[in-house]
Amino acid sequence: VFNENYYNEITDRQQKTDMVVCGIGWLKNTFVPERGIVLEYVNPENKIQSYTEDPYFRDCFYHGEFKNVPLSQVFVDYQWLNLPENAKQKEQVANSSDAWWDYNVTAKNQRIKGTTNLLYFTYKTTRKRAKKIKEKGTGERIVSTASETFDETMVQTVDFKRVEVEEEILMEGVLVLGTDIMLKWEVAENMARPKSNKQKVVDQYIGMAPNMEKGYIDSPVARMIPIEDKLNVIELKADQIIQKIQPDGFIIDPDAIAEL
What we know:
There is one protein chain. The protein is an alpha+beta fold and 260 residues long. Helix content is 27%, strand content 32%. It has 6 helices and 11 strands. The strands form 3 sheets. Strands 3, 4, 5, 6, 7 and 8 form a 6-stranded antiparallel sheet that branches. The chain has a 3-stranded antiparallel sheet with strand order 2-1-9. A two-stranded antiparallel sheet has the order 10-11. A hairpin with a 5-residue loop joins strand 7 and strand 8. The longest helix is centred in the last third of the chain and has 25 residues, at 220-244. The relative contact order is 0.16.
């Protein structure tokens, strides 16, 4: 999986650079039917999450990522926009980037035409999964999935027992920034779960900030900047002192030489 995603060649280096410069690194893992498990680099500048004091962000219940995406990709990924009855929404998506750029006062030469701005986000919540257990006269038990409205008291002929399991799930969505259009909002089709607890779910976004304390993220570069500023000031002062130093020189008395 790491080799297919060129992790060691590209993503790992980008993450290490972010760890040194920003003090935090992010990675996103998703499952795409055509490509399998996909590992993507996430720019910390475009990442948001719920407040946490955990340096590994394990207790965050929502994550979000800003992306500038070509319109061609949007219309391919979300085919419902191409239907005739959704022509108004498609036009709104095509023109959404102008409103977003105006809101953020983006310079004209920095605007990329033919793109739109999307917010990819996940939200962790819970749901109840019901099962029904049928017990035969021989003592054999058959477990099958039950509907949400199933009530064992309404079944008189067969011995059924309803059981419920509450599990964590991830809701994932895509919002077109500058509009109120949700391109996607559904239960994640593929969710990773730890082997030790099948009721828990693993976030798609994985991050680490080793030097985070009470929400403040420190980095090696941030600690180097004050020292580097002092070194620059010392060097500047040394140059000024060197410029003020003038040699005393030598005085030659021709008369004294003549007398000698």
